[in-house]
Amino acid sequence: MNSPASTCLAINGERLLQRIAQLAQIGAIDGGGVCRLALTDEDKAGRDQVVSWMRDLGMSVEIDQIGNIIGTRAGRLDAAPVMTGSHIDTVRTGGRYDGNLGVLAGLEVVASLNDADVQLDRPLQVVAFTNEEGARFAPDMMGSLVFQGGLSLQEALDTVGIDGSTVRENLERIGYAGSVPCGQPDVHAYMELHIEQGPVLEHESIDIGAVTGVQGICWLEFEVQGVSNHAGTTPMHLRHDAGVVAQQIGSFVRQLTERYGPPQLGTVGRCELFPNLVNVIPSKAVFTVDLRNVDKASLDQAEQEVLDFARQAAEREGVQIKHRHLARFDPVQFDERLISKVEQHAKDLGCSVKRMPSGAGHDAQMLARSCPTGMIFVPSVRGLSHNPAEFTHDKDLIAGCSILLSTLVELARE
């Protein structure tokens, strides 16, 4: 069997960049960004392109029951595959790298192995997971969650999107309602390359992130019901103001993060007041709270503190309050052995490397439930993501893909 050293195994950076640019034309929007919401016509066109590239590389292609695209490069042995990939769906104002890099880097690894005529022991799979973003259908990371068995197929297929149609209807409409069963994956290891989507690597002038895991997340939606009344005639002590309770909870979330200190995060990202008029006391407020932490106990405590404060604030103002969970994922720790491999291959390439957690959710956190999992981060300029201005320098994309190649080759020879 050939070795990387004897064959000068290396990726073709220009080919990788060309594929990234070509896929970015599907669903292109002003500013260099991309809009390919899951299971739309644009997503279908992107899927078709990825499938075409897989077949051009001699890979067998399967579509599972939730629409995940799985391309396989055969190995010498009948063994559990090594898997890499990510997603190609985007948010409405997305960039060209988020998710797409992981899938296209996986294809570049396969192309580079083909160029060098290197055969690996284990099969190598590249997967494009369905609906990672959750921008059209909740929850996010749906495809990888169903793939792993953490969400039932029927529940996922019955999910109603923001336009009133279901996942099932749209999979059938775009021709990606596959037949391969989900829920019991047999994967030797999973490795995902991704842009950081944050400012840390660039700020610290670090080339590569060896991702240690994904922080836990708690999304809460609150609804406060008060009494609408005239802003000029109602004394302050006689008000039942839904808006002021929302503001108090928002301030409490910020104070909580300061009290806990890093790595606790807290955000009120959406807030709607009704009737939303300048001279009317709000009768209703609907808002969200996003809490994140790498430590489960701290995240649980923060959530309980927010819920307790919300109840007390509502009682003081004489209003009703209720809440529901929009999402709840515990922190995930990646495989120490894979983290170390990323570190070593980065150093071998002459890159500086930092161990760091991921602030955003990724398909990798779902795969970590079933197999050893790791991630490679490359810097995001100004930390921008979910933004048409999302950008990563070519040299960093190429370095990340090179480290992915070395790591996957090593794993596929185990």
How would you describe what is shown here?
By secondary structure, the chain is of the alpha+beta class. The protein has helices at 4-7, 13-24, 41-56, 100-115, 142-148, 153-157, 167-174, 200-203, 242-260, 296-317, 336-348, 363-367, 394-412; strands at residues 60-63, 69-73, 82-87, 124-129, 189-195, 208-214, 216-225, 229-230, 265-267, 271-274, 280-281, 284-293, 320-329, 332-333, 353-358, 373-378. Strands 1, 2, 3, 4, 5, 6, 14, 15 and 16 form a nine-stranded mixed beta sheet that branches. Strands 7, 9, 10, 12 and 13 form a five-stranded antiparallel beta sheet that branches. The protein is elongated and about 80 Å long. The two termini are 13 Å apart.
How would you sum up the major sheet?
9 strands, mixed
Shape: elongated
- As an assembly, this protein is single chain
Q: Can you write the helix and strand succession as a string?
A: HHHEEEHEHHHEHEEEHEEEEHEEHEHEH
Spans with pLDDT under 50 lasting ≥5 residues?
1-7
Offer a concise description of the structure.
The protein is α+β, with helices and mostly antiparallel strands and 414 residues long. The protein is 36% helix and 22% strand.
